[in-house]
């Protein structure tokens, strides 16, 4: 169950970061509220995950899911353009997330 909490926490990190972008610097109240709700869900799920998983495993996976997911959302929703070298390093992040999961006990 801890891993499910961790994945949900990572997904909601992407959610709140996306809503923060839509909030236009916290000037749009509805998106600002959704940003805060997403943050609360993300942090709560991370806290639940760290009750059962070591922090040294949970935190990097949480931030990794958030980083990779936010890059993908930036490209898909906001038209961000990344160089091939940047994509290479995003792939390295993804491989790192998988590697941490596979090598943790």
UniProtKB/TrEMBL annotation:
GO terms for molecular function: transmembrane transporter activity. Its main location: membrane. The chain crosses the membrane at residues 27-47, 59-79, 85-103. It is a multi-pass membrane protein. Pfam families: Multi_Drug_Res. It is found in: Cell membrane. Keywords: Cell membrane, Membrane, Transmembrane, Transmembrane helix, Transport. GO terms for cellular component: plasma membrane. PANTHER family: GUANIDINIUM EXPORTER, SMR FAMILY PROTON-DEPENDENT DRUG EFFLUX TRANSPORTER SUGE. Belongs to the drug/metabolite transporter (DMT) superfamily. Small multidrug resistance (SMR) (TC 2.A.7.1) family. This is Uncharacterized protein. It comes from Secundilactobacillus odoratitofui DSM 19909 = JCM 15043. The lineage of its organism: Bacteria, Bacillati, Bacillota, Bacilli, Lactobacillales.
């Amino acid at each position: 169950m801890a891993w499910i909490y961790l994945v949900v926490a990572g997904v909601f990190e992407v959610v709140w970061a996306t809503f923060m972008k839509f909030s236009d610097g916290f000037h749009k109240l509805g998106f600002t509220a959704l940003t805060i709700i997403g943050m609360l869900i993300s942090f709560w799920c991370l806290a639940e995950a760290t009750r059962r998983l070591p922090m040294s495993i949970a935190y990097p996976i949480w931030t990794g899911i958030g980083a990779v997911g936010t890059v993908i959302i930036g490209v898909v929703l906001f038209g961000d353009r990344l160089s091939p070298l940047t994509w290479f390093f995003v792939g390295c992040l993804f491989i790192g997330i998988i590697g941490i999961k596979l090598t943790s006990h």
